[in-house]
Design a protein that fits this description.
CATH topology of chain B: Rossmann fold
Strand content of chain B: 25-35%
CATH superfamily of chain B: Response regulator
Helix content of chain A: over 70%
Number of domains of chain B: 1
CATH class of chain B: Alpha Beta
Strand order of the largest sheet of chain A: 1-2
Number of helices of chain A: 5
Shape of chain A: elongated
Oligomer: heterodimer
CATH class of chain A: Mainly Alpha
CATH architecture of chain A: Up-down Bundle
Order of helices and strands of chain A: EEHHHHH
CATH topology of chain A: Four Helix Bundle (Hemerythrin (Met), subunit A)
Mean pLDDT of chain A: 92
Largest sheet of chain B: 3 strands, parallel
Helix content of chain B: 40-55%
Shape of chain B: flat
Order of helices and strands of chain B: EHEHE
Strand content of chain A: 5-15%
Radius of gyration of chain A: 16 Å
Largest sheet of chain A: 2 strands, antiparallel
Number of strands of chain B: 3
Low-confidence stretches of chain A: none
Structural class of chain A: mainly alpha
Distance between the termini of chain A: 25 Å
Strand order of the largest sheet of chain B: 2-1-3
CATH architecture of chain B: 3-Layer(aba) Sandwich
Low-confidence stretches of chain B: none
Radius of gyration of chain B: 11 Å
Number of helices of chain B: 2
Structural class of chain B: alpha/beta
């Protein structure tokens, strides 16, 4: 696994912006664990909203669902995923038929699922780190 | 003397972050945390606060 920064011996996956995480939470790893846990809990229903909105073919609901899920990635320092959501939102304007968004949606959906996986893995690692340092 | 505040936020992680920031400031006492304006207004019908954090 590639790594981009260390802090108190914990090394985040390179997909996470470590400096951004520490700018929010400093080195409070109990708090970071809590934030990751809350985020994961919210991701499941939010992902379901995105999927449902896409299946219903309602572009505005899809935009709203992506808008809603977006900030969760920021709070865990997954800024590339947050940016991907922002970009997709920008494509969902009133003049755009939802059919033309299909390729972009599939790319976004892949990013969202990968993000959930990487957040889950990092959450487990943070839990283990905190248990070792308890 | 600390300011009494409430947090209105529907995103749980954002609400938690705001709550922690308020606590760390040492100058804010959180009197309530609500998911929407309606819940907050119901609280404010009976309670007074100095500050409302709303997104």
């Amino acid at each position: 696994m590639s790594q981009n920064s260390t802090h108190n011996s914990f090394i985040f996956n390179q997909k996470f912006d470590t400096n951004f995480i520490f700018s929010l939470y400093e080195d409070d790893f109990s708090y970071i664990e809590e934030i990751f846990g809350i985020t994961l809990g919210q991701l499941l229903p939010d992902l379901e909203q995105v999927r449902t909105a896409h299946e219903s073919g309602d572009r505005e609901n899809l935009r709203k669902a992506v808008h809603k899920i977006k900030p969760s990635f920021g709070f865990v320092g997954l800024l590339s995923s947050q940016e991907a959501c922002k970009n997709f939102e920008g494509l969902c304007n009133p003049d755009t038929p939802i059919e033309t968004l299909e390729t972009d949606y599939k790319q976004l959906w892949t990013i969202l699922l990968d993000s959930r996986t990487v957040i889950t893995e990092e959450y487990q690692r943070i839990q283990e780190f905190n248990q070792r340092n308890a | 003397m600390n300011l009494n505040c409430i947090i209105v936020e529907d995103l749980p992680v954002a609400a938690e972050y705001t709550r922690k920031c308020c606590e760390k400031s040492g100058q804010l006492d959180i009197k309530g945390q609500f998911k929407n304006v309606e819940e907050a207004l119901a609280f404010l019908n009976t309670e007074q606060v100095d500050l409302i954090s709303i997104f």
